Amino acid sequence: xxxxxxxxxxxxxxxxxxxxxxxxxxxxxxxxxxxxxxxxxxxxxxxxxxxxxxxxxxxxxxxxxxxxxxxxxxxxxxxxxxxxxxxxxxxxxxxxxxxxxxxxxxxxxxxxxxxxxxxxxxxxxxxxxxxxxxxxxxxxxxxxxxxxxxxxxxxxxxxxxxxxxxxxxxxxxxxxxxxxxxxxxxxxxxxxxxxxxxxxxxxxxxxxxxxxxxxxxxxxxxxxxxxxxxx
Length: 231
Prior knowledge:
Helix 4 crosses helix 6. An 8-stranded antiparallel sheet has the order 5-4-7-8-1-2-3-6, covered by helices on one side. It has helices at 3-11, 13-17, 23-35, 37-56, 66-75, 92-132; strands spanning 137-141, 146-152, 155-161, 170-178, 181-188, 195-199, 208-215, 228-229. The chain is α+β, with helices and mostly antiparallel strands. The relative contact order is 0.10.
């Protein structure tokens, strides 16, 4: 088999792994892969990606005819060509590369999802670890919300969990209480019921701490009752 034919077979390997070829092409490409060590390694690498993807997401039934429409849009109708007599056009190579690009794109999307999941898990672990500590000020509030304010060498750490998302146009605001004086320690957001704040503000003189719901951007003084506090 000449180099030109070998290269054409290589361009169809991704389609072969995705089962996106006609039955005749599947048989022909399969025979070539079985006899070509280089193409066999490439097919194995694509198979590893597709296998990982199937284990990374829950199966969802596809609409009827979905596969045929995707194949027709990305690589043309597989029944209208053969591997030995491929259609020629200025865009032929890109059509053949479409399955490869699709694999790369889907793998990238899954990788981002895995990174996000790992980040969320790390955040939850950090929140739980800070709240479980014995120092600082322990806080309790509505709906089982709990939090803890901890002093640090360079300021403070605040961690909370089981907080509802604030209403539209509102935000949570942290207040340090020194006797009768309430001083804002800034606003913060909530992600999956959790909040994590690190700041360089000193806790010197702080007797208590509270969190209220305020207009977006914060308030100069609390305008609502605390949803969670140390008192």
